[in-house]
Amino acid sequence: MQIIVTGILLSGTYALIALGLTLQYGVARIMNLANGETLVAGCFIAFWLFASFAINPIFGLLIIAPLAFAFNWGIYKVALKPLVDRAKSRGQLEVDSILATFGLMFLLQGLMISGFGGEYFSYQFLSERFMIFGNAFGLNRVVAFIAAVIIAAILYYFLYRTRLGTAVRAVAVDPNSANLVAIDVAKVAAVTFALGGALTACGGALLSTFYTFNASMGVTFTMKALIIVIMGGVGDVRGAVVAALILGIAETLVATYIDPGLTLAATYTLFILILLVRPQGIFGRRTT
């Protein structure tokens, strides 16, 4: 029970990170390899707000989310929109975006290393025991999980209960058909990319409350987010949540019973198995 609860608590943060990439890739068709750097930036901003101004990281999300939204909107408009305009096919756009965001990843990583150095950071926030089913867990992990669930619920409401959310889902299914019903595909793609970045930054802020982080760890979380997205089915929010849950529990099992150093290997093994058994993902559909 302790392992399962620990895995579930971890999966909440993983889900937010993966939901950000799901929106960016599933709707805007941008495979953002700098997704992990957005997460790390969220960690550092939450740390800075807490250390300098004693701002609770949960309340700090009200600052971090708009900043990340504006930053990712700017990245899309300046660096990625020209690629979208010149691409003759979705395949070409994916290749071009991978190359562009690969360079962006190193740029952002270098800026953060220059500003914060290579050392690890952490801070004490709600570092208290919280009992669940007779087992003790960090209160910071529990609060981070609850915050992640609330954010995911707001995202679900946005996607399935609002007009703009319906447009986002329509573009994810078929941008050409969305154009035929007067949906501004370019605008929706920009908003979705920015929203995905905001979700990832929020995931980083929540992760920083219980995780030791540094400026160069973004690549690892980009790979985890990519694995979750593909496992769940590209563009499927439900699949990303379920895949994050599976990944969180699997990593906790390996760290507890085998070796904490093998959690990343377990992640890739699970990823390969999913590709062999169900390559379209848990909720994905086979190509006709």
From TrEMBL:
| Keyword terms | Amino-acid transport, Cell membrane, Membrane, Transmembrane, Transmembrane helix, Transport
Cellular localization per UniProt: Cell membrane
Report TM segments.
7-27, 58-78, 98-121, 142-159, 188-213, 225-250, 256-277
Entry membrane topology: Multi-pass membrane protein
Answer whether the UniProt record assigns the keyword Protein biosynthesis to this protein.
Answer: no
Q: Does the keyword Transmembrane apply?
A: yes
Per the record, the similarity remark reads: Belongs to the binding-protein-dependent transport system permease family. LivHM subfamily.
**Name of the protein in its database record:** Branched-chain amino acid ABC transporter permease
Q: Which species?
A: Aquamicrobium zhengzhouense
